[in-house]
Structures are given as C-alpha cells and as structure tokens.
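Provenance

Sequences were taken from public entries as deposited. Structures were produced by running a predictor on each sequence independently, with no templates supplied. The record for ABC transporter permease from Chitinophaga silvatica is shown for reference.
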Amino acid sequence: MFNTFRNIIKVFLREIKLVGTDHSLLLTLLLAPVFYAFFYGSIYKFKVEEKVLLAVADDDKSELSRTFVSELNKMQIASVVGATSLQDAKEKMYYGDCQGFLYIPSGLEKKVLGLQQADIVLAVNAARFLPSSELAGAVTTLALTVGAGVRLKYNEMQGYNTQMAMQETQPVNLDYRPVFNSRSSYGAFLLPGLLALILQQTLLIGLAESVALDKERGLIPSVIQLAGGSFSAALWGKGLFYLLLYGCYTLFFLNVNYSILEIPFRGHVGDVAFVFFLFFLTLIPLGVWLGTIIPNQLMAAQIMVFSTYPVFLIAGYAWPYEALPVFMQGLSSLIPTTPFMKVYISIVQMGGTLSDNVEAIIHLIMLCGLYALLAIWGIRRLNKNQQSLSL
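Predicted structure for ABC transporter permease:
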C-alpha cells in the first residue's frame, strides 16, 4: 500500500512539472477557468432584462390609455418610446430602434368603461427570445391589472362594498409564486450550471492534452515505469493533480463567484463538496481515456473545445432530458454531466440533499467505474504499443 501511494506521488510530481513547462496546459488549467468564470458570469450578472425599448402608438389618448402607458414605463422590464402612429411604431421595430411596439386603438377607454371587450396590440421581435417573452409577460400582467381595476371601480359604483366588489371582479384569484428562482430570471438559472461546465471542460481539455502529449512523445512507458508498473497508479497519480487543483477551483467558485454574482446557495456545503469530488473522480478517467484515443495534443484541444456546446445541450440542463430523442437520451446517459447537473442543481438551487438524489449518484458512480476501466485499458494498450515500437 505504501509503495502504491509513493508511486502515485511520483507520477503526481511529474504531472506538476509537465504542466509547468507546457504553455498550452498552463493557459488551459491555470488561466482559463478563472477567466471564463468571471467573463461569462459578468454577462449575466444582472440576470434579467431591464428597460427593453418598446414603442407605443396611442390612438385613444384617454386618461386610461395614458395611465396604462405610464404604468408600463414604470415597470423594470420596459422603457417606452413614443410613436406618432402605428406605422411609425412598426418602422421603429423593423429598423431595430426598439424590440417591439404596443398599439392602443381609439375607443379603448369607452369600451372598457362600458364593460365591453377592448383590444390592444402587442408585437415583439421574437428573434430575441428573452426580451420578447419578458415584454409579453409584463404587458399581459399590466393589462389584466388595469382591467381588474376598472371592473372593481364599476362594481363599487353599483353599490357593492370593497370586499364584494373585489370578489365580483376576481372570482378566482391566482396566487403565483415562483420558487427557487423567484425573479424567473435566465441568469439565475444559467450561472450555476455554467460555472460547473467551465470546470468540467477545462479539466477534460487539460487532462486529454496531457495524456495526448505523453502519447505523442512516446513517454507512456516511462510514466508506467515511474508508477511501478501499475496502470491504476499511473491513472490516479496523473489525476491527483487535477483533483486537487479543481477542488481548489470549486471552493473558489462557490465562495467568490457565487458571492460576486449574487447566486443563491440553498444546499449544504458538505453535500456539494461530495458531489464535486465524485464528479471529478469520473471526469479524470474520462479525460485520460480520451487522451489515449486522440492522436496528438493539438487535436485533443480542438476536439474537447468543440464538444463543449453539444455536451451542454444534451446534458439535460439547457433542454429537458425527457424531451430528447431516445438515441440522444442514451448518449446523454453516458456523459457524467447529466447525473451531476441533476444532483448539483437540486442541492444548490433547490436545497435538496444527497438522499434526495440517490439514483443520480449511483449513475455517476457507475460512470466512474466504466471510465476507470476504459482509461486503464487505454493506458495498457498505449504502453504495449510504444514498448513494441522501442524494441
């Protein structure tokens, strides 16, 4: 046992020296995680769309329409841009001066006060999803609120007291309470998963590059010799450096980035630490195995960078796992990101525990065993091939 540990330390120290002398590995492992975390995180720091430009053409020019426009302009999501006519509002949207337009036709107030149905027109530029959806939701909510206010005032004029008038106005009251992501913001949803994805991809890129570099230079037999002939010692000796480094990154992200970006943390620190530890134990053999099947260091970097967005899309985070085609679900199940994200988001955003995610944890452990076997097989194959070439 002591000899195995000593061999692991030897390979670990060799990995530190290798990373310190290779510029590509240095940039990938020491600069990229911190840079990307702050760079991408700063994009979504405010998390929600604010003051999206909306052109308003008011042909009614009544007290009700002016109140509606004034209240709309006070909302966080919208900033009203005046338009002289409906055609002018359309042109402002078409030329990109605003993200949509609201048209209030003549006779709105008269119809509303007469308890007749009145229409207003909202057109949004759906080429940008977030502004269009936020504007539509805000205008709909405001229209319902203003309409309810007019009906309430009418019922009070009919002799109802305030309580009875409110019951007549809103016989069914919707109590809408978004939980966990209280502002329903895209940034609050995206940032936790984005930070974890940065850790995953930079680890895989660096480790695959390292193994591919040793393969390219024909140094796999020397690594095995340094590990005392043990393929598992070579695997975990190389991986120990990445486990310690990315453990430090995890602590940094959870304390610094979460604080700066104001990301809620609802779970238990110990649960999150365990999940990340298990996640890295799965990623390390995966990265080693990928390095053994990729021809050289440059191609390893190219392939792993290219895989980042596809992995994000099929991991069940950006798009529900159940909504994927069956064959894509099978592929997604082979990616450690899929079970990890399920546990990680459950703990961090929803306040869940490890016991709430037993199935996903078992899934991650099974993938760890699978990729450990593949990594050892890949190292053994490379060692045999390079030894035969040296004879």
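Residues 358-390 form the longest helix (33 residues).
The chain has a mean pLDDT of 85.
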